[in-house]
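On clarity, I found the account of how folds are encoded harder to follow than it need be. What matters is that the chain and its backbone geometry are given together, residue for residue. I therefore recommend that a typical entry be quoted early in the introduction. An entry of this sort, consisting of the sequence and the corresponding backbone structure tokens, reads as follows:
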Amino acid sequence: MGTCQGTKKPQQAKPNLEIQIPNNDHLENTKKSQIQQSKSAVLEKKTPVTSQRQSLKSQPFQFNSASSDQAFKSRFSTPMVDLKNLEQDQVRSSKHKTTFKMNATVKKAAFSKFYSVQQSKKSSFSKIPGGSIVVQHNMTGKLHYADILENTQATKFYVDELLRCQLQHPNITNVIEILEDKSQYIVIKECAQGVPVSYFEPPEKQASILKQIIEIVCYLHSKNLIHGALWLGAFERNNDLVKLVDIQSIFIRHDPTNHDAEYIAPECTLDSSIYTKERDIWAVGMIAHNLMCGRYFKVSNASDILKEIEQIRIKKHIHLENSSIKELLEKFLHISPEKRITLQEALKDEFLPKTNEMEQFDQILERNKKLKKISVLQQCLLLLFINQFEEEQKAKFQKVFQNLDVDYDGKISKSECLALYPDKGEQINSLFNLLSLKDKMDFQEFLVISVDRSQLLTSQNIEIIFNLYATVKKYLLLQTLVNIYKSRENELQEAFNEYDHAHLNFKNFETLLTDLL
């Protein structure tokens, strides 16, 4: 039996370090083209995916001095990528506990080896010198946000906190990986591809938006994290799915801005360093007011808004117009912090929509009853398919997951499932045993057992995914999977011990997946 050994990569020429930002690329067109690109891996034999990937890698990553986006260029006081004398693919291991979703590492690697710039992101929540852009992964074609941050003490603190806290929730833009060089960090995050939540949301969507926002903040509080700078624009909505996109404010504190000043709790006008759950609860109440009743404050300057909030504190009264949500708003916006409603209590309010996903959960139980186990290697492979083809299905499964996550900690437990479905104890135990889990299951693991594998694992899709991740010699390397799922490195190495080499050929790859059908 062979041992797992990484394949030594040939020395590559240093990449072009200048950054080219196309002026006419748009997210929607890119999204359509990436789907077409994936399909062409099988249908267009003249242009194999490996050739497309090499072509993407070879594209120059440079600033165009003639670009009209001079404002974006001027935001950076240091070069965005300076990789001279940098060894590629070095990974700094983290001591922090990892999860299935996030690679808890900081990777020292050439940005242009993995990503191509698509366009600048016009809005940024960054409180650290740097900026945000939209990038495309050279291998998968998927879009991501990239926060490019100067290598300062504040940045190092932020990166360390990201690794420590391991935020993982279907309503939060998750961190994919972090690239590092001597002058900056590049934080790669999910691309929400949505629009900021605003005062003008359709009435029929408002209650659902508010419920998701409460669930997000409830999750943060379950991890003893206080956001402290919540406002409507900190969230984006893509159809019915709401995501928190400003995660930096959780770790980097800042003075009130014209955007978030009106959401500050009255007690914080005396001491801006007060960061409590009650501060966030007041902010959620103001979000609810502004979402459903329009802006509370008529002034727009931060200092003027803070003066009005100070008057609310002094008078110990906030005036609320009569509305269908007035009673709930009064519970959020109580002047005394200790008397404000808890977020768990708020989620039970009759104003917020109730979800019952019992039929969907029954289908998941039925879908898995014939399987005995899904190995870690099969889980990792299946997630490649889910992330490439099942974006629309994720929102559906998210609702089922959140219905089961009774304590809003971002994981579901056996006890939570059994409390909701006491007559399905044997099936629920079997579901957890499938993934060799004792009690807790995160959203990524839930997706593995939720998707309809018969529709996902078609011959065409299997060939597409293999071609996307395989080498020119048609091998899927152990190291490729380790780079994606760093937290499962030991388990993946153990799985590859069953093979003669530290790679899978197409037949091995196909067999592992068809065994799940």
